[in-house]
Amino acid sequence: MLNASAALAILGGGGGGFGAGPTISSLAAFKNYQKDQVKAREAFMDQQTVQNEIDYFKRNAPKLNTIEDLLDNQRVLRFVLSSFGLEGDADKPGKIKAILKSDPDDVNSYANRLNDKRFGEFAKFMNATKLGATNLHISSNQNELTDKYLANEFEKDMGRKSPYLRDAIFFLREVNKATSTYDVLGSLPMRAIVTQTIGLPQEIARQSLEKQISLIEAKFDITKASLNSEDTPRTSLDVLTDDISALATARKQVTGAVNVLSSLESQLTSLRTTLQDVPNVTNTSGAYAAEIPIQEAAIESLLQQKGLIAKADSAVTELDTIVNRLDEITAAARTAEDADALTALQNEFTSLVSQVTGNTGIVNSASFTDPNDGNSYNLLRSGGDGGAGITAIAGDSITTTVKDDGTAVVTKGVDLANFLTELQNADTNFQAANFATITTDIVAVETNLGTAGTDFSAAKVQNGVNSAGIDGTVAPIVFAHQINSTIIANGQSAVDDGIKRANRTLELLADIRQLSEDALDPAADLVAINDSYSNIVSLLTAEINTPGSVTDGTTTVTYDNLLTGGATDYIVQSTNPPPADVLIRANGGALDTDILAALPGTITAGNAQTLYDDIDNTYTPAGETLRDQLTADKAVFDLAANKLDPYGSVDSQVRTIQDGLDGLLAGAARDDRNLLSEHEQDILLQLDSISTLLTISAETGFKSSFTTALESLEFQVANGGSQSEREQVLNDALFAASSALSSLRGEDYALAIQEEILNSRKVELEGDTSDSAFLKPTQNTEFAIQFIEQYLIKKDAEAFGTSFGAPNNSYLIGLIQPIAPVAGSGLNILG
After folding, report:
1. What is the 3-state secondary structure (H, E, C) of 625-675?
2. What is the sign, positive or negative, of the torsion defined by CA atoms of 537, 538, 539, 544?
3. What's the Cα-to-Cα distance from 286 to each of 149, 282, 289, 290, 406, rounded to whole Å?
């Protein structure tokens, strides 16, 4: 860390006195300066060399775009650095480059970690990581730097005329920016001036920050030394600049909303065009005439492939967890504490293996039953397995051509027969293991698991390839064969509704489970428990027996109840000519029988344990099995409804907009204001420079009207809405978006006019040097002025060879007496 002398040397003070002897003290020079600050500043500003530097900077700064451009122009670089009092580092390009490449908002960046906070201020002003050197193009920034440059160079010039005078002027300028003692410590020159004045040694820098602050605040009160910002007089240019800044912020907030609405308008317009073009796309004599028969032939196979992949995906996810746990159990067996611990591991191992193997295990249950041929197929048992009722996949793969150029979707199976055998062998070997010989016995288990793991990894990879393959292949294809849009959409909605209600059913079963556990307590209040139980059973009954529906207020379409209706087939397309329709199946259940009919009328101390066990072993598994089956079916319905159906493809994109609306609208927020939020207030913009109050209206009703328009699509689709009815939905949504967009663009236009007027006025004021911040005299508190005068006394005493505090020194007394502390000022650094 720099010491006090070095810190002041940065400014030109603290370096040593008057040489052979001064003819005028720094204190006297300061008092002369205070009598007419403006005259001294004007005299300096009018110097030709000063004007040449300003002119060069303003002519060349706009030519610099990158950090490298700035570093290459030493004259502009020195000017900018001088504005921050950092010109001494102009010949250190590596350091300056590192500072400019620092993130100004990261407290741990290089610039912000340097001892002198001016480096961080420089980095923040330039914001070079995002803007390069382009911040220097802005006229207001150029004027700010010019004023700062003049202030720094003027202080240096004054310092050349009288030692320590620069320190005094610098202190009085900077002290008004400080809001705490921490700010003083963050500036090396300020720290040096303050600590020297109040007589603190340089060694305090080695103490904690809290201790340094305590020592300084004992004799220096920053609240008395600094003018509050509201007490600082504002120039006309200040007011104008603030108004322009406020306008820029308001325009940014408007632009945020405009961008979101423009995006919505563009998406809806594009979707409307696509919807209007569906009749042309599906025309058997149109542009896709060659593709339609190929797509018609492919639909059944594509749905089968999607169903196979979905079932295999679900199984692989479960298997992944189990295979990893089997490896963990095997490793734990090597370090089992005793035979009982080993037995516990063996029991868990067997339980997990039994979930995977057998005809009802995870692997064989990953079968997709095709409603079109009645067979069950399984990508994880592609070779077939008679015992599990699985039909072999010919050649272990399915190939479906989807375009007339031969593009095809290929789905391959990986038969896990050997995987199942190795797991069973692993279980047999593990159960035969003995605690006394576990280290040797476990080797065979690890070998079995290693082979099984290799087979499983291959299946997992292949299923990932299958999933990516079908999605990636069909994504760019325009499907033109018209299928049963309404039937498929209603099936999709029924599946979505079933999944939602199955999840809610599981939540209610968990509540009943808790009640049954509570009832096991001998002190349980069974009356209160049964009141809750009755309410929950009522909710559960409604959840299971009442399917979802959609209405336009007059007509209601109710979806199939897949929680009670069992497997339900939907006709994707009717073949012409026959023999058979192409079907898609939702594998519903019978939770009314499996759960509702089995629940007891009340919970008693006698049946509480049975109910608890039934929920864990019967009811919850039934709900989970149904939910998981519907989740796999959803992938097939989504392919049919969202991609294979030309109308459904448009519908799904509208639903995507609807589902993502909240996130999209959140993107309109700027500076904590969101003009598309339902709860936003109008922006009131007071422009003091022209005594005008502007109001920017928030579009609080947009979301409601837009959402209402989109929600009507669900009914139109379910009720077999025509193309024109679907188009009306898009028109209504477009009207809501376009109306709000038009309003906000009008607001932006009005703001732009005001901004142009104020910017023109600003250009006029900037050309008037009488409004230059540099030429304004510095205003300070009496405390600050007395404090810096005490500093000058000390420096003058040192320069005249006087030891501060020596008794009966007539010169020193002559210096001090004219500036005795004002009563009540709180300044008593001589005491």
Report:
1. HHHHHHHHHHHHHHHHHHHHCHHHHHHHHHHHHHHCHHHHHHCCCECCECC
2. positive
3. 73, 7, 5, 9, 20
Provide the residue type at 317 as one letter.
T
768 confidence band (pLDDT: 50, 70, 90) = low
Label residue 699 by pLDDT band (50, 70, 90).
Answer: very high
User: Does residue 354 surpass a pLDDT of 80?
Assistant: yes
**Each residue's pLDDT tens digit, 112-168:** 888 788 898 999 999 888 888 888 988 778 888 998 999 899 988 888 888 788 889
Angle between helices 438-474 and 292-334 (to 10 degrees): 160
**Other beta carbons less than 10 A from residue 230's beta carbon:** 6
List for the chain the helix, strand, coil content (%; round to 5): 65, 5, 30
Phi, psi of 411 (to 5 degrees): -120, 125
Neighbours of 699 (CB within 10 A): 25
Q: Given pLDDT bands bounded at 50, 70 and 90, which one contains residue 806?
A: very low
Q: What is the DSSP string of 700-768?
A: TTHHHHHHHHHHHHHHHHHTT--HHHHHHHHHHHHHHHHHHHHHHHHHHHHHHHHHHHHHHHHHHHHT-
Query: Tell me: the pLDDT tens digits for 577-634?
Result: 555 789 999 999 999 999 999 999 999 999 999 999 999 999 999 999 999 999 999 9
Paired tokens of 774: 């540099």
State the Cα angle at 576 between 571 and 577, rounded to 5°. Answer: 125
Comparing 766 with 302, the larger pLDDT belongs to 302
Are 675 and 229 in contact by the 8 Å Cβ rule? The answer is: no
Q: pLDDT tens across 497-537, in order?
A: 999 999 999 999 999 999 999 999 999 999 999 999 999 99
Letter for the amino acid at 62? P
Is the predicted pLDDT of residue 300 greater than 90, yes or no? yes
What is the SS3 assignment for 326?
helix
Can you state the angle between helices 37-45 and 26-35, rounded to 10 degrees? 90
Beta strands in 324-459 (DSSP E): 368-369, 376-377, 397-401, 408-412
Nearest 5°: phi and psi at 560? -60, 140
Q: What is the rounded end-to-end Cα distance, in angstroms, of the chain? A: 30
Q: Which residues of 368-404 are buried (b: 16+ CB within 10 A; e: fewer)?
A: bbbbbeebbbbbbbbebbeebebbbbeeeebebebbe
Asked if 692 and 675 count as a contact pair (C-beta separation under 8 A), the reply is no
Q: Report, in angstroms and rounded to the nearest whole number, the Rg of the chain calculated over CA atoms.
A: 41
* Look-up of token digits 């009722």: 389
CB 668 within 8 A of CB 674: yes
- Whole-number pLDDT of residue 640: 97
Identify the pLDDT of residue 777.
78
Report residue 22's pLDDT band, with 50, 70 and 90 as the boundaries: very low
Taking the C-alpha atoms of residue 620 and residue 614, their distance in angstroms, rounded to an integer, is: 8
Q: Give the C-alpha separation, 576 to 202, whole Å.
A: 97
Which alpha helices (H) appear in 558-645, and where do they start and end?
A: 591-594, 608-614, 620-639
- Mean residue pLDDT of the chain comes to 89
